[in-house]
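Support request from a user on the community tier.

User writes: "When I paste my structure tokens into the form, the page sometimes reloads and wipes my input. The last time it worked, I copied everything first. Here is what I submitted, just in case something in the input itself triggers the reload:"
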């Protein structure tokens, strides 16, 4: 097969957790084995990723924690999980869905992040 002169794009996929495949990018937030990655709902033609570090699942911070999503279209979102929600993710098969903070770009919106263990 002859290749053209233009740039060639490759689709990257990373595996996180059990059976979860998501598109990978240069800003992939996965940093360690055991981290849990969520890809948000697609709103206004874009999505974000957010990662919960394994240490926060193993030992949930009192009062929970707030995580910042990847940046897309010039904005990011905050995703807060309670101490109980983090503890729930210690169980295989657990699913925790959380609505993100709102952003104004490109128009006011938020995303649903679903974390699965």
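"...and here is what came back when it finally went through:"
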């Amino acid at each position: 097969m002859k290749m053209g002169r233009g740039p060639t794009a490759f689709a990257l996929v990373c595996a996180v957790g059990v059976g979860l495949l998501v598109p990978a990018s240069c800003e992939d937030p996965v940093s360690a084995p055991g981290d849990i990655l969520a890809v948000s709902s697609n709103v206004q033609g874009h999505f974000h990723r957010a990662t919960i570090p394994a240490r926060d699942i193993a030992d949930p911070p009192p009062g929970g924690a707030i995580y910042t999503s990847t940046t897309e279209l010039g904005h990011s979102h905050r995703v807060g999980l309670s101490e109980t929600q983090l503890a729930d993710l210690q169980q295989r098969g657990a699913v925790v869905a959380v609505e993100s903070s709102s952003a104004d770009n490109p128009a006011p919106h938020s995303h649903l992040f679903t974390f699965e263990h």
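Agent notes: The reload is a front-end session timeout and is unrelated to the input. The mean pLDDT is 81. The helical segments are 54-58, 83-88. Escalated to web team.
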